[in-house]
Design a protein that fits this description.
Oligomer: single chain
CATH class of the largest domain: Alpha Beta
CATH topology of the largest domain: Rossmann fold
InterPro entries: G_CP_dom, P-loop_NTPase, Ribosome_biogen_GTPase_RsgA, RsgA_GTPase_dom
Strand order of the largest sheet: 10-9-8-11-13-12
Helix content: 25-40%
Enzyme class: hydrolase
Protein name: Small ribosomal subunit biogenesis GTPase RsgA
Bound molecules: guanosine-5'-triphosphate, zinc ion
Strand content: 15-25%
Order of helices and strands: HHEEEHEEEEEHEHEHEHEEHHH
Number of domains: 3
CATH superfamily of the largest domain: P-loop containing nucleotide triphosphate hydrolases
Distance between the termini: 67 Å
Family: Belongs to the TRAFAC class YlqF/YawG GTPase family. RsgA subfamily.
Shape: flat
Radius of gyration: 24 Å
Structural class: alpha/beta
Cofactor: Zn(2+)
């Protein structure tokens, strides 16, 4: 199997019917450090830089992210990224602190491992937040409840996750006792598929990565010297190839995981429990807040719908709406500004100054 295939090229290329422009090479981004991009191409790892068009003409969301497939122009051992190839999906969150910005954490992933620690920090509604955002991004979740060694009865936590009424696989794990590790390796993570690990700081993502990859399979870097001796590149990477051939993206700890509104996404689709209860609402456009004939509120009052789940729904929906409004405002302001400059130009033309 050639290197690109090991990184999932075939499945990606076929699913999106990708063609590479003449003279360019496909490569996958495995790490980004400032303006330096590290990629794997068909002959191994290489360093890459942005072409001028990307450097000066692209929005930050359009720039290469870990997991992206790109078209490179090769120049000796260096690559120039000419184009970011279409993405099958992108995992994003609201950029911490910023109001309207979406930060893309990784792209082209087959599933996300949402890692939560079963210590005092465990909070099932935080998990809900991750699941909502993943669904908004069109990415399948796998829940990992780590540090199971710390609790007497981990089944209590499984029941807690069931409160969310989502059809999501849940795995109890411990990197310490190794509980669930074989299951992850053999049944969850599939060769040539790409996974991303997300979860707050301290839940055990690095420990999990260490447990999964004793002796990471590193590819050898391309060389420029005449004797073509393989040079071992030791870049710190973000996308790892595990011994079973699966690909895992590690993200640094996230204190904030702000939801964004994704275009074309009806908010209620993201909340299956609410959507089910809403089937009985009197009006099809019911906002489930204080409307008469709202079956969702009735379900909460009658004890048929978890009030915490309902609260979380209101909170996340509000956050998404706020994000949406700010984006709309920004676009409108942009348009107004455009109109203003056009008018000013016309005025200047007319009065010739
Ligand atoms: N008891 C117990 N402790 C664990 C387990 N897994 C990780 N830890 C501990 O939890 C702490 C945090 O683990 P890390 O792997 O660094 O967590 P992380 O998610 O990578 O954190 P960031 O790098 O900040 O994102 C460390 O002290 C680990 O030893 C586990 O299964 N059981
Ligand atoms: Zn309603």
């Amino acid at each position: 199997m050639n290197i690109l295939q090991l990184y999932g090229w075939e499945a990606y290329r076929e699913s999106l019917s990708i063609t590479i422009p003449e003279g360019l090479t496909p490569a996958r981004i495995i790490s980004i450090k400032g303006f330096k991009y590290y990629a794997v191409a068909d002959d191994g790892e290489l360093e890459a830089e942005l072409s001028g068009k990307l450097l000066y003409g692209a929005e930050s969301e359009e720039l290469p992210k870990v997991g992206d497939w790109v078209a490179l122009m090769r120049y000796d051992t260096l690559g120039y990224i000419i184009e970011v190839l279409p993405r099958s999906n992108a995992l994003s969150r609201k950029t911490p602190g910023a109001q309207t910005q979406r930060q893309i954490l990784a792209t082209n992933v087959d599933a996300a491992l949402v890692v939560q620690g079963l210590d005092r920090d465990f909070n099932v509604m935080r998990l809900e937040r991750y699941l909502v955002q993943l669904q908004a991004c069109g990415i399948a979740p796998v829940v990992i409840l780590n540090k199971a060694d710390l609790v007497d009865d981990p089944n209590v936590f499984l029941q807690d996750v069931e409160r969310l009424q989502r059809d999501v696989p849940v795995h109890l794990c411990s990197t310490l006792s190794r509980l669930g590790m074989d299951d992850l390796r053999h049944t969850v993570l599939k060769p040539q598929r790409t996974y991303i690990m997300i979860g707050s700081s301290g839940v055990g993502k690095s420990s999990l990565l260490n447990a999964l990859l004793p002796g990471v399979v590193q590819t050898t870097g391309a060389t420029s010297d005449a004797n073509h001796k393989g040079k071992h590149t030791t870049t710190t990477r973000d996308l790892f190839r595990l011994p079973n051939g699966s690909l895992l993206i590690d993200t640094p700890g996230m204190r904030e995981f702000g939801v964004t509104a994704e275009e074309g996404q009806g908010t209620d689709d993201l909340f299956p429990a609410i959507q089910r209860a809403a089937q009985g609402c009197k009006f099809s456009d019911c906002d489930h807040i204080d409307a008469a004939g709202c079956a969702v509120i009735a379900a909460v009052q009658q004890g048929d719908l978890d009030p915490d789940l309902y609260d979380s729904y209101l909170k996340l929906k509000k956050e998404q709406r706020r994000f949406e409004i700010r984006i709309e405002d920004k676009k409108r302001l942009g348009k107004q500004f455009g109109k203003l400059t056009r008018e000013a130009k016309n005025y200047r033309k007319k009065y010739k100054f």
